[in-house]
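User: I've been going back and forth on whether these two constructs are worth ordering. Before I decide, could you fold them both?

Assistant: Sure. I'll take them in the order you sent them. The first construct and its structure tokens:
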Amino acid sequence: MIRFYETDKPYGCFSNFAKYPILLKGKEWATTEYYFQAQKFAGTEHEEEIRLASTPMIAARMGRERNRPLRPDWEECKLQVMREALVAKVEQHPVIKSTLLSTGDCTLVEHTSNDAYWGDGGDGKGGNMLGKLLMEIRDGR
């Protein structure tokens, strides 16, 4: 099992806060976190505001603000949006692709008590959806 979370630790490149810009939708996004949070408001002025935030943490906070008009299909499409961002990151950064492939058949876990959906909830009981998507991409699924 490989646990990751902090960007300055081993496998930190898998974090959505890791500073690996991606090109998607004809724009550069400073990290996958910026892209993911902005897509909650795709096609609105909020999308661009989040893209231009000064840090990934600010982009994340902006994306969680519920005074912004969350797209109605968000729950249905959020996994696909995250997959799209991760595929771009892996394909556009050979170092991440080689790091991901080097994990072989290890289970990848975003280990954090801050998130029980994308991460493991800190106790291993969370959904670990980020880890699962990374493993699917690694395994060609």
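The second construct, handled the same way:
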Amino acid sequence: MHPAETLTNKEPGTGLHPTRLVLWLMIISIFMIFAAYTSAYIVRREEGNWLEFELPASMLINTVLIVLSSAAVQWAYFAARKDELNQVKLGLGLTLLLGAAFLVGQWQVWAELVRNKIHFGGVDANPSGSFLYVLMGVHAFHLVTGLIFLLKVLRKSFNYQVHSRQMLSIGNVTIYWHFLGGLWLYLYLFLLLNH
């Protein structure tokens, strides 16, 4: 944690800024949601009537995009610590573009699933396909919230409110974005091993 983040406005008992504390509580709750979904996936799979199918290959491309976006937001964070404001804007903008490309890629994965007759619901649906849509959809929802958060921090950077003495917002968005990237890696590996 950067020194400027720890000097003021700490929550009593935790030593964290209130917004950082809320962020960590949110991350824990999101993690618990996905732990429940993946546990339910394993339990339901063992019950039978489980359609086996190949995961779309484009999921690997999306994984590369999310990893690159994580690298970009980390670059922006390091640039803010050094007061390299143009690099902060560039890094946040690149993260935003890569995150949007990831969402477009997820939409293409869903389109490929539909072409392969893997449906979310209806008479042709199977729990294996439904779980895949839910896991990807809930992650995509949280990624949209991350993009909104990124936009707010990017706007702050254009107003000179992100620099070495104001690291809280970029620190929070960096933590959240890394969490979303790590969550996707977990889901992708989980699906590769259990699908």
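Notes on the second construct follow. The CA atoms of residues 131 and 185 lie 17 Å apart. The two ends are 38 Å apart (CA to CA).
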